[in-house]
Design goal:
- The complex is a heterotetramer, with two copies of chain A and two copies of chain B.
- By secondary structure, chain A is α/β, with parallel strands linked by helices.
- Chain A has eleven helices and 16 strands.
- An eight-stranded parallel beta sheet of chain A has the order 3-16-15-10-9-8-7-4, covered by helices on one side. Chain A has a four-stranded antiparallel beta sheet with strand order 5-6-14-11, with no helix packed on it.
- The longest helix of chain A has 16 residues.
- By secondary structure, chain B is an alpha/beta fold.
- The longest helix of chain B is centred in the C-terminal third of the chain and has 13 residues.
- Chain B starts with a strand and ends in a 7-residue tail after the last strand.
- The chains are: A alpha/beta, B alpha/beta.
- Chains in contact: A-B, A-C, B-D, C-D.
- Chains A and C meet through strand 11, strand 12, strand 13, helix 7 and helix 8 of A and strand 11, strand 12, strand 13, helix 6 and helix 7 of C.
- Bound molecules: flavin-adenine dinucleotide (FAD) (2 copies), flavin mononucleotide (FMN) (2 copies) and FE2/S2 (inorganic) cluster (2 copies).
- One flavin-adenine dinucleotide (FAD) binds next to strand 4, strand 6 and helix 2 of chain B.
């Protein structure tokens, strides 16, 4: 393949009805609602934005410490702190209206199916919300969240109920803390999910050995960052070869090469989480690195990379395109 | 806001405690006392999180910022290996520093351990606006005592140590008596949480208002991870505010401890 | 706590009927049968030795590449290459007889229950073998291995069958690729396991983006190394609070502090895997680091650290001691 | 066997190709051509695996070992940043090198790219025992050609490049004709797997026995992980032998390619 000028690379990818200007978006909970990062760069550069998990009513979250460092990663146990869906709609989202072509994806969490449904219903009235990301995989709250993501039947029930209430497309975010991710993915697809994002965090723990107690106040937390990238790539690879709906890759993306790896595994786009903490400019940097890699590798359309290393997924993609 | 800053000086000023000065004209111009910088100690994935360190001094004419830190764990140990001349990845200044009140006649500054550094720039600014400064600083032991000479440029300094090896034996609160705080309009405190809690209680009893600089573990340092919160009673309700963005300095009367 | 002289630290821990001189042993598959490392140091320094997975008949393993590097970790897909139990007994183990007080733990793998049982039966005749480690968690062979480790019923059946055939104690090595590790642990305990070791590797993948294909010939591989430590600590913590049999901690141990972390989580000993590749002297170094940490922290008996940060596990331990 | 070795010299000898000399008297004394050293490029967990690099030259009097490597990925990129004077964590020499046969009159050495380095020490030892040496070395392009001068000290050197920018255009096997190998008792080859495969086939056709140095991804480098195996036909059966311990050099006739 002969190198290309970087400007000749077409970075666009199609996600459901949305044509994203590039395949890179921040991951939920790692970008708040965008206001802080807007001080650093133009959010209009992003392919899309996924905002912090939103629940029906305000949540205070867990006690601190809520974060801990691990080799090539971190643990978090935020516990879904957010002001509740009404204030999210009134106070947190409006500033995003000023960006051209910046699809806003709202991550939804809760403790019972009815909560999720109600949040989704309220978001349904907002023209700013391009899609819902259903967080059935949060490991950091006592009830709700992750158990929906590790039980096939509960996941399917949740997805079906939410789909009925939703006016926007529903992306279901899967938990990696399962024995068979392909099966969970299929259950969600069958229940009506429009797309999947994976992975949420792995459950982990660090102990403060000098104080002889878990470092996080919550005990356990969610492991994210480069450490989990190989697990995420494997799951994306497996799921993309199993379902016909689009898959968004999440987990440890810190460079353009990482993003390309997820695309080749079968993802149509990637989310960037922890890397935003290490480097506030991570997202625009990764977009440029994807562009540069494509140019150097003679790839004129980034969409051509999708599932390039995953023949079974590529076959499914082609079938779908027919 | 994010800069690759050259290290101008890096010296050990007490056992395991380093003074690090770097070149960052923007930060030197804009930083206020009580704000912090968020430093990436290596580009290795061993450290995906940055380390928050308080601004100790700024020198706008030299374009320099100084932090003083103790080697605590792997990250600060790594930082301590970086030599003058090397480039440092610095984000900041970040957060809300100590508010100055122009009419204050006298302020009491209370610092514990590596909570002392931000008080130095604060003392300088208070003195510059004509507020008399008295500092009370506490350390575990003599070998870890730092920055008393710097603080002494701006007013009286009382020192306490846990083991009595320097100054008064005991805690900083032992110094904070009615007579000592007489005439003080305000206090400013930074140090470990138990100290802040004790100082808050003592000064409330003495009816002196003040500010506390809180220390919480941080993910991002600029408000996007919601990792660093502390319960703050404000507008009649308890809120988990971000110490990196809404703090680290809060009015003492608003800060809740559990 | 006041510091102690390093020589005053008692490193011994009790594992079943074995009094180990210290809690550090190499993990299976990361030390071969000990011969190569014996060129570097005296194996007699080790608390015990766990040798490479042994199957009934010789296995050639998977095609190469079999290893890949990941952030703070690696993937492997060795595929259980080994000369088969007969040659293991005849050629690989005898050299270990010369070490005083070096319990030899043989890791057993296979594809069907009968294979496992037969290997265990043959090992039963060897006085050199102190214990069996049942590998029901190998992610790198097509049939057998991991499916036993991710299915409650199959695991229990396997453990029961092996226990019936075994003359030595049986340690069951658990897979982390499950939704509920505590439940798997309990199933194994109820089926008669004498002890548990955890974790084996997480399933992962890397893609060679320049060649557009998974890097490992096998596609997926097992993720090990520091990256997985928080997952392993969490699982040890959870399992130690759930079962009454001893737990051995494995996953990412690279320093004395890491070993102490596992002990405080509830492990009675730790296994060191990937760290042997980074540093051939990892095991003796970690033993010395544990000793130094204990000395500096005023801990005179390393056994006192077990479950120190896990109150529920500590309670179970005390009950058991009564 | 494991040493913290001081870097004596570290220079870029062609685009992205470095010559690294380090101080290791033991290794310099015991290493044989075809053996390799296993280098830890950083103490960061970003690199849990060491990198294998062939011994290119040894100088027992100076106590030095030289390797020549190409920057390939993150690890060698990191290695390339280390300056002379720094300490390097080196394990080795490891593996089985090229066997020398005292009575050989003439040997043909075949190298491709960064497979050329081990041939230099080999050529020196062959020459020292009176074996005439002819080398054939292939590169992608002129800018990546290395070590021809060093090999020329011990005999004729033919060069090929894929793009014809230096020497003959084409592959090394283009040079390996009946006439060329005439009188050769043996060949020694090191390079990328497709090259080794082609050389093995060609030389078998020309009925010259020889040795291949194989390249497989390594975990440990000394035999404990069983990651680096290659199918070898020996004692009448196919065995997956460890290239780090039983190799990297094997008799060409035993090596199976799929
Ligand atoms: C706003 C603020 C200002 C600070 N200013 C100073 C200062 O001027 N001088 C100074 O010596 N120290 C200061 N600290 C504490 C300093 O940030 C920690 O000592 C340092 O981060 C420890 O890093 P480490 O890599 O050595 O420890 P590790 O234990 O390896 O750190 C692991 C993780 O925990 C975090 N962490 C560990 N200890 C603390 C702690 N006590 N407080 C917050 N995070 C911690 C680290 O940032 C990192 O994310 C400040 C902390 C905060 C929150
Ligand atoms: C016995 C032996 C001798 C070698 N001698 C030389 C030499 O003298 N000069 C030289 O330039 N190169 C040599 N190589 C190849 C060299 O080891 C790799 O180029 C190097 O490991 C790549 O590391 P990296 O960090 O740059 O690449 P990365 O892609 O970051 O490496 C990731 C992992 O893959 C391994 N890897 C990547 N490419 C290769 C490869 N081609 N072969 C083996 N492992 C690889 C690395 O060792 C590491 O474990 C030799 C390889 C072997 C097996
Ligand atoms: C601090 C933090 C908060 C998070 N909050 C959420 C959340 O609210 N909703 C959600 O679906 N995922 C949340 N996640 C998970 C991330 O969106 C992402 O799935 C995970 O971190 C893996 O990606 P990474 O390795 O790039 O961080 C959070 C992760 C972190 C680190
Ligand atoms: C190269 C390699 C080979 C392994 N082979 C085995 C094996 O044969 N049997 C087994 O039970 N575990 C095997 N494991 C898993 C390890 O014993 C250990 O459970 C895992 O690597 C986690 O520990 P670590 O992070 O310290 O490496 C292997 C791991 C590696 C890296
Ligand atoms: S540290 Fe991330 S919000 Fe404060
Ligand atoms: S690299 Fe580990 S056995 Fe060869």
């Amino acid at each position: 393949m002969t190198p290309l000028p970087a400007n000749d690379v077409d970075l666009r990818v199609q996600l459901l009805s949305l044509m994203l200007k590039n395949p890179v978006m921040p991951a939920s909970g790692c970008f708040s609602f965008g206001r802080e990062v807007a001080r650093f760069y133009d959010l209009g550069l992003l392919g899309a934005i996924v905002v912090k998990a939103t629940t029906l009513t305000e949540r205070m979250g867990n006690p601190t410490p809520r974060v801990a460092e691990t080799p090539a990663g971190m643990l978090n146990a935020i516990g879904l702190q957010n002001p509740g869906v009404e204030r999210v709609l009134e106070e947190e989202l409006p500033h995003l209206a000023k960006y051209d072509n910046l699809p806003v994806i709202v991550n939804v969490a809760g403790t019972a199916v009815e909560d999720y449904v109600e949040v989704v219903r309220r978001l349904g009235d907002s023209p700013l919300v391009a899609a819902i990301e259903l967080n059935i995989s949060c490991p950091n709250v006592k009830c709700g969240g992750i158990q929906f993501g590790t039980d096939r039947g509960m996941a399917a029930e949740m997805v079906a109920a939410v789909k009925e209430a939703a006016t926007q497309p529903v992306i279901v975010k899967l938990s990696p803390n399962v024995a068979d991710i392909g099966d969970m993915a299929q259950a969600c697809e069958e229940a009506g999910a429009d797309a999947l994002s994976l992975i949420n965090t792995l459950v982990g723990m660090r102990i403060d050995i000098d104080r002889r107690t878990p470092l996080l106040a919550n005990g356990t937390g969610g492991l994210s960052g480069p450490a989990i990238l190989p697990v995420a790539v494997r799951m994306v690879y497996e799921v993309a070869a199993r379902v016909r709906i689009p898959v968004i890759g999440v987990g440890g993306v810190a460079s353009g090469r990482d993003a390309v790896e997820f695309l080749q595994a079968g993802a149509v786009a990637v989310q960037v989480g922890t890397a935003n903490f290490t480097d506030p400019f991570a997202c625009p940097r990764i977009i440029e690195e994807v562009r540069d890699w494509c140019a150097a590798s003679g790839v004129s359309r980034v969409a051509d990379l999708i599932a390039a290393a995953n023949p079974a997924a590529l076959r499914l993609r082609k079938e779908r395109a027919l | 806001m994010v800069a690759s800053a050259r290290i101008l000086r890096h010296t050990e000023i007490a056992r395991g405690i380093f003074d690090l000065r770097f070149f960052s004209p923007d930060a030197a111009r804009t930083a206020t006392p009580g704000q912090f910088v968020h430093i990436r100690v290596s580009d290795s994935f061993d450290f995906v999180l940055r380390r928050p360190l308080s601004v100790c001094r700024v020198d706008p004419s030299e374009g320099s910022v100084t932090v003083v830190y103790r080697v605590q764990g792997a990250g600060t140990r790594r930082l301590a290996t970086m030599a003058a001349g090397a480039q440092l990845d610095v984000l900041g200044p970040l957060g809300q520093g100590f508010p100055l009140h122009a009419g204050d006649v006298r302020a009491v500054l209370v610092g514990g351990g590596v909570g002392v550094p931000p008080l130095v720039e604060l003392a300088a600014r208070l003195a510059a606006q004509g507020t008399a400064v008295t500092s009370v600083v506490g350390f575990q032991t003599r070998a870890q005592a730092i920055l008393q000479d710097e603080l002494a440029l701006y007013g009286d300094v009382r020192t306490t140590t846990d083991d009595g090896s320097l100054g008064l034996r005991g805690l900083v609160t032992g110094v904070l008596t009615q007579g000592f705080v007489d005439g003080a309009n305000r206090y400013y405190a930074c140090g470990p949480t138990p100290m802040l809690q004790a100082v808050q209680r003592t000064m409330a009893g003495l009816q002196v208002p003040g500010y506390l600089s809180l220390e919480e573990r941080m993910g991002c340092g600029f408000g996007i991870c919601v990792g660093c919160v502390h319960p703050i009673e404000r507008d009649g309700r308890v809120q988990n505010l971000k110490t990196c963005k809404d703090g680290p300095v809060f009015p003492a009367g608003e800060v809740l401890f559990t």
